[in-house]
């Protein structure tokens, strides 16, 4: 398969007054063209920072990509010039953010904001860009596109704003769409509309999608491949069917067992005890061991490597062979 | 199950809209527009619906945190909405609320023991001192916190722990009814399950009734005995949870349930996609409020408000065509 994006041993650290936060610490994964990869994990596990590192949107200082390579179409994005990365952002790779209200500019109309990228990257004239913007608004299923184009973000509902974000992100026909919790702020019926729309556009335009979410339901439905992150590291990496049928990392298993609809009636939810560790004071050994019921002395002292236990299924756990759901 | 302890009848809450220099009233936002239900002792009633459907307003109006426009709320045969002050004070002890946002619902300048103990002192159940401290310790330990947490401030806790403080505050007065307004929505999944387990354990131990408000249908199905579905300020369906999930009668419920993503990649669901957004509650559609998005809508739906009727087995639906 041809890999559109390949992330190799990415490390993004934040140098704060209190110490170094290893937000992303040696992450490896790749995205094939036309496929969707799901990145799952709880708040603070580094999933958004991974996405922002790809587009070099990490505020520096305090953040810095200290190691690793990010190959996109054969080019290493960590090494290209600022001008080149600006050309890639919004053109070859675009991003949808979680909160559509804070990521749209309140003082410009929806049309202006979609047109900006078109004029900048595609070198369209204002008139052409406006036509294209209206066309994109129609494409994402917003009625009265020729009126909406002149409205401001506050005049739209949450679902509509997220559609505008998608229209904006897709206007230049990017090869990779990074969607960071695109439906978390939305109601389920609207979420269903947005996911459907993303899938439709993926098939129509052959865009690859990197979907960041904490909702295992959304992941199961959208992705071809899934990686699970915990405290800045990838703990499990597998094709979607394999991951749900045969999860091997105790954290992944714990996540699945804490979802009511996967557990069934009357059974007690199994919760993962404790909370995500403070990134400034990570435990010794496997980062998950204080919360893991399978932990042994080996886990308390050594850090497990991500290793392949079945074809295409990688886990970082010493006891992956013994644990199961 | 036993008698109803809470009875809500035709409850309405309209928020006026003012406009212009003279603050003339130009209309109403009909947040809750006539809902009725009963809640039994030891039962959990789940209330679901999309944002803006009035589920939180319902919860708050029942507790008289908001003054209702119309309707009645009876708690153990006492009229909550017209209770005199001293009676209301007693009722407040029995009816508590847990809020959604564990960050803004705790006073940042108060310690855990002050937060949990405030109501106890206010209701003159305890005086400051050793006894109170012991009781607070007991309550917070039950909620999964430790004694050494007592003198800490909310900012020192994680989201899940803060939600436990919120639950401990509600629990301290030993209530028999708690409105849980999206208590787990702001939490990560692994933490969510800890809080859900705590709520169900407390119910088993003390027979507390919950009005559990949430937009997460998976959680609601897990925790509730019966579920009510709201749309634009009205209940459109109310039933025992399995009857509702296995055999939803209202077209809105059907669409809502089919929209839940299933965490199983091998299953493909037949999704009913709703068109458009929820209409504004300031200017709701005539007749059945759902007719603008309903795929079965006929002329009668535009004109007549459907009755909320029992289809048998206490399965209530507000739709002209439901059978």
UniProtKB/TrEMBL annotation, chain A:
Transmembrane segments: none
Matching NCBIfam families: oligo_HPY
UniProtKB keywords: ATP-binding, Cell inner membrane, Cell membrane, Membrane, Nucleotide-binding, Translocase, Transport
A molecular function (GO) term: ATP binding
Membrane topology value: Peripheral membrane protein
SUPFAM superfamilies in UniProt: P-loop containing nucleoside triphosphate hydrolases
Lineage per the UniProt record: Bacteria, Bacillati, Bacillota, Tissierellia, Tissierellales
GO BP annotations listed: peptide transport
Record's subcellular location: Cell membrane
The protein, known as: ABC transporter ATP-binding protein
PANTHER family attached to this UniProt entry: ATPASE AAA-TYPE CORE DOMAIN-CONTAINING PROTEIN, OLIGOPEPTIDE TRANSPORT ATP-BINDING PROTEIN APPD
Subcellular location, principal: membrane
SMART domains listed in its UniProt record: AAA
Keyword Transport belongs to the record: yes
Family affiliation: Belongs to the ABC transporter superfamily.
Domain ABC transporter: 5-256
One Pfam short name: ABC_tran
Nucleotide-binding as UniProt keyword: yes
GO cellular component terms, A-Z: plasma membrane
Automatic annotation (TrEMBL), chain B:
GO molecular function, one term: ATP binding
SUPFAM superfamilies to which the protein is assigned, alphabetical: P-loop containing nucleoside triphosphate hydrolases (SSF52540)
Domain of life: Bacteria
Span of the signal peptide: none
Domain ABC transporter positions: 6-257
Keywords: ATP-binding, Nucleotide-binding, Transport
Gene Ontology biological process terms from the UniProt entry: peptide transport; transmembrane transport
Stored Gene3D superfamilies: P-loop containing nucleotide triphosphate hydrolases
Record bears the keyword ATP-binding: yes
Keyword ATP-binding: yes
Alphabetical list of PANTHER family matching this protein: ABC TRANSPORTER, ATP-BINDING PROTEIN, TRANSPORT ATP-BINDING PROTEIN
Family: Belongs to the ABC transporter superfamily.
Protein name per the record: Dipeptide ABC transporter ATP-binding protein
Organism, scientific name: Anaerosalibacter massiliensis
């Amino acid at each position: 398969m041809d890999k559109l994006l390949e992330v190799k041993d990415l490390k993004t650290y934040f140098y704060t007054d209190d110490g170094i936060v290893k937000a992303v610490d040696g992450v490896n994964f790749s995205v094939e063209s036309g496929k969707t990869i799901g990145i799952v994990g709880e708040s603070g596990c580094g999933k958004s920072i991974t996405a922002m590192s790809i587009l070099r949107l990490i505020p520096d200082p305090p953040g810095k990509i200290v190691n690793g390579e990010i190959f996109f179409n054969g080019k290493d994005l960590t090494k290209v010039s600022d001008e080149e990365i600006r050309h890639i952002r919004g053109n070859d790779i675009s991003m949808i953010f979680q909160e559509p209200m804070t990521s749209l500019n309140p003082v410009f109309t929806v049309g202006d904001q979609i047109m900006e990228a078109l004029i900048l990257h595609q070198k369209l004239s204002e008139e052409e860009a406006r036509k294209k913007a209206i066309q994109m608004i129609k494409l994402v299923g917003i009625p009265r596109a020729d009126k909406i184009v002149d409205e401001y973000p506050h005049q739209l509902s949450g679902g509509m704003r997220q559609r505008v974000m998608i229209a904006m992100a897709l206007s230049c026909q990017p090869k990779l769409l990074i969607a960071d919790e695109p439906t978390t702020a939305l109601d389920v019926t609207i979420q269903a509309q947005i996911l459907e729309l993303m899938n439709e556009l993926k098939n129509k335009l052959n865009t690859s999608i990197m979907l960041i979410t904490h909702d295992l339901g959304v992941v199961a439905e959208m992705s071809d491949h899934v990686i699970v992150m915990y405290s800045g590291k990838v703990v499990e990496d597998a094709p979607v069917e394999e991951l749900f049928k045969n999860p091997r990392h105790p954290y992944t298993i714990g996540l699945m067992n804490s979802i009511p609809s996967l557990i069934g009636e009357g059974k007690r939810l199994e919760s993962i005890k404790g909370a995500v560790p403070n990134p400034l004071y990570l435990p010794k050994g496997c980062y998950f061991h204080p919360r893991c019921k399978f932990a042994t002395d080996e886990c308390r002292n050594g850090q497990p490597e991500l290793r392949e236990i079945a074809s295409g299924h990688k886990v970082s756990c010493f006891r992956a062979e013994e644990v199961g759901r | 199950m036993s008698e109803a302890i809470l009875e809500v009848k035709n409850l309405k809450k309209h928020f006026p809209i003012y406009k212009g220099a003279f603050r003339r009233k130009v209309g109403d936002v009909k947040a809750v527009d006539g809902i009725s239900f009963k809640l039994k002792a030891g039962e959990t009633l789940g209330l679901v619906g999309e944002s803006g459907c009035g589920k939180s307003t319902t919860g708050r109006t029942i507790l008289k945190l908001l003054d209702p426009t119309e309707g009645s709320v009876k708690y153990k045969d006492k009229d909550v909405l017209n209770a005199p002050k001293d009676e209301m004070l007693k009722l407040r002890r029995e009816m508590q609320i847990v809020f959604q946002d564990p960050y803004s619902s705790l006073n940042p300048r108060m310690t855990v023991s002050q937060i949990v103990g405030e109501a106890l002192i206010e209701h003159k159940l305890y005086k400051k001192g050793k006894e109170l401290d012991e009781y607070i310790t007991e309550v917070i330990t039950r909620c999964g916190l430790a004694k050494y947490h007592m003198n800490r401030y909310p900012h020192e806790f994680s989201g899940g722990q803060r939600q436990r403080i919120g639950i401990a505050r509600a629990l301290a007065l030993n209530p028999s009814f708690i409105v849980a307004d999206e208590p787990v929505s702001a939490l990560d999944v692994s933490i969510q399950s800890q809080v859900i387990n705590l709520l169900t354990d407390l119910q088993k131990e003390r027979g507390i009734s919950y009005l559990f408000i949430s937009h997460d249908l998976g959680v609601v199905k897990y925790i509730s005995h019966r579920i009510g579905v709201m749309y634009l300020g009205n209940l459109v369906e109310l039933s025992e949870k399995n009857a509702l999930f296995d055999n939803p009668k209202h077209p809105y419920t059907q669409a809502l349930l089919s929209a839940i993503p299933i965490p199983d990649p091998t299953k493909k669901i037949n999704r009913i996609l709703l068109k458009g957004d929820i209409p504004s509650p300031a200017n709701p559609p005539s007749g059945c409020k759902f007719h603008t998005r309903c795929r079965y809508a006929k002329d009668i739906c535009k004109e007549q408000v459907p009755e909320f009727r029992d289809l048998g087995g206490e399965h209530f639906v507000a739709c002209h065509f439901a059978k």
